[in-house]
Amino acid sequence: MSERPVLEARGVDAGYQRRRRHPATTVLRDVDLVARPGELVAVVGPNGAGKSTLLRTLVGAQAPLSGRVLLDGADLASLSPRQRARRLAVMLTEPVDVGLMTVESVVALGRLPYRSWLGTKTGDDQSAVDRALADAGVGRLRGRMLSDLSDGERQRVMLARALAQEPAVLVLDEPTAFLDVARRIELAAVLARLTATTGAAIILSTHDLGFALRRADQVWLVGGGSAVTASAPEDLAYGGAIADCFAGENMAFDDAAATVVVADTATPGATARVEAAGRVRQWAEHAVRRAGWAPSEDSATVVRVEPGNPCRWWVDGVAGVGFGALVAHLRESQAVPSMNHVGEL
Question: Looking at the predicted structure, is the pLDDT value of residue 96 above 70?
Answer without folding.
Answer: no
